[in-house]
Amino acid sequence: MDFLEILKAIILGIVEGITEWLPISSTGHMILVDEFLKLNVSSGFKEMFLVVIQLGAILAVVGLYFDKLIPFSFKRGFSIEKDKMSMWFKIIVACIPAAIVGVIWDDELNALFYNYQTVSIMLILFGILFILIENYNKGKRPRITTISEITYQTALIIGIFQLVAAVFPGTSRSGSTILGALLIGVSRTVAAEFTFFLAVPIMLGASVLKVFKFGFSFTDSEIVILTTGMIVAFVMSIVAIKFLVNYIKKHDFKVFGWYRIVLGAVVLLYFAIRNVLFL
């Protein structure tokens, strides 16, 4: 087993774990990282790997929010907590648009939009929107300040924003859902938490879909690379989630908007220069 490939998996796990939860687009970062750090694996495994390492990120959410996510209680015999079940029904409603589009048109959408031009444009566009919406909301009190106040209608609207991220890489799944939630009056903390919860079924479903498409025949080195990436993504996700939750208690999302704009410009500039040099 080549240690260099394990090191690459560690770096990719770090990037995935951090950028999956901050509203800055994991795809945009992965495209840049892939330019300088290419895994020596088959294209099929690489495509699957970049999605399935998200399972580590999902486990981080489940671990951090276990009490809020699990609707079953065994304190006084088995019981189901209705408020948590209601939350899960709303999460399912929010996931339906992206799930339908992802299952039916996943390959077609990747072929059409998985390129640096789309990623750069969406990074910049949603960066601008973050700044504009935060300025618009300045001084206003959010209408929704707890998860339980999210209605099915609100959940569906957030789900439609999540659909935008499923179609256009670079939008950022967390970025689009947080932006949509802020736009309809959800507080920053609740918007972030609901985004974390939405990720569990969406990312789990995407990972299962990719594994089935790839098949279950892994070499020993592929298992090591995949496991390493997932473990690192899990650890870094815990760090990123805790950072984001603490940060937005005192700050808004505008810094992420500016970061997205700069990153989008860097991606465009880098590929423009590369294309000129290698014509």
UniProtKB/TrEMBL annotation:
Organism from which the protein derives: Clostridium magnum DSM 2767
Catalytic activity: di-trans,octa-cis-undecaprenyl diphosphate + H2O = di-trans,octa-cis-undecaprenyl phosphate + phosphate + H(+)
Compartments reported by the entry: Cell membrane
Family recorded in the similarity comment: Belongs to the UppP family.
Misc: Bacitracin is thought to be involved in the inhibition of peptidoglycan synthesis by sequestering undecaprenyl diphosphate, thereby reducing the pool of lipid carrier available.
Topology term for the membrane: Multi-pass membrane protein
Protein name: Undecaprenyl-diphosphatase
One Pfam assignment: BacA
Keyword set includes Mitochondrion: no
UniProt cross-references to InterPro entries, sorted A to Z: UppP
Transmembrane regions: 48-66, 87-105, 111-133, 154-171, 191-212, 224-245, 257-277
Record EC number: 3.6.1.27
UniProt keyword list: Antibiotic resistance, Cell membrane, Cell shape, Cell wall biogenesis/degradation, Hydrolase, Membrane, Peptidoglycan synthesis, Transmembrane, Transmembrane helix
Main function: Catalyzes the dephosphorylation of undecaprenyl diphosphate (UPP). Confers resistance to bacitracin.
Swiss-Prot/TrEMBL GO biological process terms: cell wall organization; peptidoglycan biosynthetic process; regulation of cell shape; response to antibiotic
PANTHER family for the chain: UNDECAPRENYL-DIPHOSPHATASE
A single Gene Ontology CC term: plasma membrane
Recorded GO MF terms: undecaprenyl-diphosphatase activity
